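Sample intake sheet
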Amino acid sequence: MTDTDLTKRLTDVFHRTFDDDRLTLSRTMVAADVEDWDSLTHINLIVEIEREFGIKFTTREIAGLTNVGELMDLISRKAGLIA
């Protein structure tokens, strides 16, 4: 899977989770940038990402994320896309 494929799949997850096809992901995006991104939606987002990519996150991994770029890097590592 290329970085472009990862971005498209992750964008699709964001669109479904937030029910907003207008969302455009960027590596610098944070929860405050998305109107409905609250703690419950965050949990739903993580669960949907785990399902989409066939991976599991630890609580520590999730708590350490500061933006979508770090999330993308973590997905890549967990899915074996990068070392």
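Comment: The longest helix spans residues 3-18. The chain has one domain: 3-78.
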